Amino acid sequence: MSKFKKKTKAETNIPTSALPDIIFMLLFFFMVTTVLREQTILVEQKIPQATQLQKIQKKTLVSYLYIGKPKNASLYGSEPRLQANDALINTSDIVLWVNQQKDNLSEVERDQIWISLKADRDVKMGPISDIQFELREADARKLMYASVGKVENN
Amino acid sequence: MASKRGRMAQEVNAGSMADIAFLLLIFFLVTTTIASDKGIMNILPPKQDPNQPPPEVDLNERNIFKISLNLNDQYFVEDEVRRDIDGLSDEIKRFILNFGNPDEDAIALFNSLPPSLKGIADQSPQSSDHPMSGGAVISIKTNRGTSYEKYLEVLDLVKKAYFEIYGERVGLTGEEYRTLSGQSAAEKELINRGKENIPMAISIAEPDKTGS
User: Fold this and answer.
1) What CATH number has the domain spanning A49-149?
2) Interchain CB distance below 8 Å, A59 and B22
3) Is position B193 within any domain?
């Protein structure tokens, strides 16, 4: 009996000397994966769900267009608006914007530009098709409808 | 001697290291947005020259699989109202793989298909002629008032049908085929073999303006 008691009383504290290393490892993981946002999003973004998602391998080729209802409705109204870089733009400015984005790429990659359309799920097809028309005009025909994964239920 | 002892005792206090690391960790945890550069890829058609009328496309009605969405987000598949679109993906697959009126190349394509796809491949004369270019086309038409979410849902299903066919041809599932990156030569070869002679013919029509 006394033998048992002695054993349970033996050292029970967890060695914590490796704790900083573990924390550092986690820290490095998040430091590497983090992307600090350099833009503030001015429009609502509830990205729709889809299943057939693909990834673009070369991130430098991607330019983002955001569309949705402005968050600040008193300033910009409640109709869906388009945001590129840091400002709200009109549909007619897309061609200019695409050309600016293309200029940021190197000569050989200019035709390979991808536009990632981050549209809110409540946007109607009207504005979307206007954007698509302008993108065709600007000859930036590779379009990606940004969406998040959905668990398939079949 | 005393000074030596003092030097020996000079050691950085590492006890609070974990706390500092924790603080940094929490900062990065909060600011992180794991980049989600994923989405449904689509290639838009080239722009139309206003001086040239759009080329006359000689496509038979039976070669077009019409999916349309109206103002109230109701689905119409081949002009019939649908309550939901469950199983649409399989219907599209059967439509694409139909050989109603195959020419020589299409017969060669049919013979190259794996048995599982031959099983789906039908020869109904009312459906599409063949899956090659000039054959089956999936058309998605929307109204300006259709919601983007529903449109994407339909496009998603059409993509799924194609990826499953492509995957099956190279012995992969649709999912595996879709996630091929094409960075190594072997993957590139798989991708090309999957879609050889079966182009992804998805036509996205200009939306209707009228409310109907």
Assistant:
1) 3.30.420.270
2) no
3) yes
